């Protein structure tokens, strides 16, 4: 049975966290609180579900069993950091007309193709 406690345990183990670590991350005093949650022996307030979801890098909807994918749809924490030059280039590109953006994309693809041939 895929209860909230079971989903918390599975996700915690997937991330390699101990019950002690999860307790500290979510404001519980000891691992026994997490153990009781994982055994479904403790009711959770909405704020605690959110705190646990955040600590486990997932969504409350996943923990509640409303969705099956533990990874959030908009997981910006896992996105690679952009260099300052890429950020500046993106700002310039945003100012171009849609037609000029397409032209620039075609030029960039051509440069990349040329670069890989050399």
In short:
The protein has 118 residues and is mainly α. Helices cover 63% and strands 0% of the residues.
Structural class by SSE content: mainly alpha
Biggest sheet descriptor = none
Low-confidence stretches: none
Q: Alpha-carbon distance between the termini?
A: 57 Å
Order of helices and strands: HHHHHHH
What is the typical, i.e. mean, pLDDT? 85
How many helices in DSSP terms?
Answer: 7
Coarse morphology: elongated
**Radius of gyration, rounded?**
22 Å
Tell me the strand percentage band. under 5%
In total, how many beta strands?
0
Q: Work out the helicity level.
A: 55-70%
Structure report:
Helix content is 63%, strand content 0%. The protein has helices spanning 4-14, 19-26, 31-38, 46-55, 60-64, 84-95, 98-117. The protein is built from 7 helices and no strands.
What is the fold's blueprint, element by element?
Layout (H helix, E strand, L loop, with lengths): L3 H11 L4 H8 L4 H8 L7 H10 L4 H5 L19 H12 L2 H20 L1
Helix pairs in contact: 2-3
List keywords for this structure.
single chain, 118 residues, 7 helices, elongated
